[in-house]
Specification:
Structural class: mainly alpha
Oligomer: single chain
Order of helices and strands: HH
Length: 76
């Protein structure tokens, strides 16, 4: 079980890193559009994508927290 938790933790950390990078890229792209027309479809799509990535990121952080708690509990 401990081995599986550590593997899951590594996978989640990798996912978090990927999500962090994607959020930073989209944030930079959105900054380029600031001041443009809010009806711009591309801007709306990027904002929706960013919101989705932020939700995914939050989910990964929750799962990492749970995995850390399980690892701590199993090491006691």
């Amino acid at each position: 079980m401990l081995h599986e938790l550590r593997r899951q933790q590594r996978d989640l950390l990798e996912q978090r890193d990927e999500l962090d990078e994607a959020v930073m890229e989209l944030t930079a792209l959105l900054q380029e559009f600031i001041g443009d027309d809010d009806d711009n479809e591309e801007l709306v799509e990027r904002r929706e994508r960013l919101a989705w990535l932020q939700r995914q990121h939050a989910g990964v952080l929750v799962m990492l927290g749970e995995t850390d708690r399980a690892l701590l509990a199993s090491s006691e």
